[in-house]
From TrEMBL:
Residues 1-24 are annotated as: Disordered. Residues 66-166 form the MurNAc-LAA domain. The keyword Cell wall biogenesis/degradation applies. InterPro entries: DUF5776, MurNAc-LAA_cat, N-acetylmuramoyl_amidase_3, SH3-like_bac-type. Residues 294-353 form the SH3b domain. Gene3D superfamilies: SH3 Domains, Zn-dependent exopeptidases. This is MurNAc-LAA domain-containing protein. One of its GO terms (cellular component) is outer membrane-bounded periplasmic space. One of its GO terms (biological process) is cell wall organization. It comes from Candidatus Enterococcus testudinis. SMART domains: Ami_3, SH3b. One of its GO terms (molecular function) is N-acetylmuramoyl-L-alanine amidase activity. The lineage of its organism: Bacteria, Bacillati, Bacillota, Bacilli, Lactobacillales. Keywords: Cell wall biogenesis/degradation, Hydrolase.
Length: 354
């Protein structure tokens, strides 16, 4: 069975965001999964951002799917119920034996590598994107967003889970390792050879400049797959950083040249030039600089929750104007004061004071 000529979409949108829980929004988490899935499958993107109601969103998605024609369609969602229900499941059209077989195989493969409860393949005649699509559609529920257990698994093993699904469908892999949610980052010395990922070994805030404490490679992509040139960047080289991005759970520095490097602390360090010109910036006062190092803050505008203190890091949720957070750290990076706390998933989160 070939699953080429497929479509993929994220359920819901910012206007009809779907379920929420553990500081996460369904449409944002599903977007991350959908993007990773399409990076490998090259599936036609049928996501809808225009529909202002749930019905309009569904109709727009269905129309896009059917414009592709008879095809395999994949819809990415997250479940929600009572905070204790958990597990992974896939919906398919009742009576479609091929879709059922695919759903069962994906459920078995994904749950085997993640430890999710296998809720199995479920038949339906009512879910719109399944009953209204030309061809065969499956709707994947990537765990329960209001289950801390499920979201911890998804945070740690997202790439592994997606890879298991891709393998069943006959595709390659996203840039995740076989044992964790991180990227398959090859044999470079800048990447840990152990199977245990420890974020404390990496810089997670953007610096203006970095210095190599040992020679290492620069790469053409954030996944650190393709080396730039034939030689490592020499020790003590100082380079300008323009961003901090993530590949899976691994943070990378994006350089002014457009290349990427590891943020491992044993490879690079922050470089601060001793120049009198820097004193001209000393009087710049950032919003939030007067806040205590820990406390409670009420947001004055809708503000993204991010996985690192950088505007280029992944948004994992949003605090609305008037909502509050209790934070235990305050850091300054990238021209912002960032408040930080441990979220319901057990992961450290950041929001800028804007």
């Amino acid at each position: 069975m070939s699953y080429n000529n497929s479509t993929s979409h994220r359920g819901h949108n910012a206007k009809t965001p779907g379920a929420s829980g553990n500081g996460l929004k369904e449409h944002e988490v599903a977007q991350t999964i959908h993007t990773k899935f399409r990076d490998v499958t090259k599936a036609v993107d049928c996501t809808d951002d225009a529909g202002a109601t749930a019905n309009a969103n569904l109709v727009n998605i269905g129309n896009k799917m059917n414009e592709v024609g008879k095809s395999w369609h994949v819809s990415h969602h997250l479940n929600a119920f009572n905070g204790t229900a958990n597990g992974f499941e896939i919906w398919h059209m009742a009576g479609n034996a091929e879709a059922k077989k695919l759903a069962e195989a994906i459920c078995a493969a994904v749950c085997a590598v993640t430890g999710w409860v296998n809720r199995g393949a479920k038949a339906t005649t009512s879910l719109y994107v399944i009953r209204a699509s030309a061809g065969s559609a499956i709707l994947v529920e990537w765990g329960f967003i209001d289950s801390k257990k499920d979201m911890d698994i998804l945070a740690d093993k997202m790439d592994v889970a997606i890879n298991a699904m891709l393998k069943v469908m006959g595709y390659g892999s996203v840039s995740g390792s076989a044992s964790s949610g991180g990227s398959n980052i090859g044999s470079s010395s800048s990447n840990s050879s152990t199977s245990t990922f420890d974020i404390n070994n990496y810089h997670t805030t953007k610096f203006d400049q970095i210095r190599f404490v040992k020679a290492d490679w620069a790469y053409k992509e954030v996944s650190l797959k393709t080396k730039d040139g034939n030689d490592r960047v020499p020790k003590n080289t100082i380079l300008t950083v323009t961003g901090l991005e993530y590949s899976g759970q691994y943070p990378r520095f994006k350089l002014k040249s457009g290349l990427y490097i590891t943020t491992r602390k044993d490879t690079v360090e922050e470089y601060k030039a001793s120049s009198s010109s820097s004193s001209s910036n000393a009087t710049v006062k950032l919003k939030g600089s007067d806040l205590p190092n820990k406390g409670k803050y009420t947001f004055t505008t809708n503000t993204n929750i991010r996985s690192a203190a950088s505007t280029s890091s992944a948004s994992v949720g949003i605090y609305k104007k008037g909502e509050s957070v209790s934070y235990d750290q305050k850091v300054t990076a990238g021209g912002y004061v960032w408040l930080s706390w441990i979220g319901a998933s057990g992961k450290r989160r950041y929001s800028a004071v804007v």
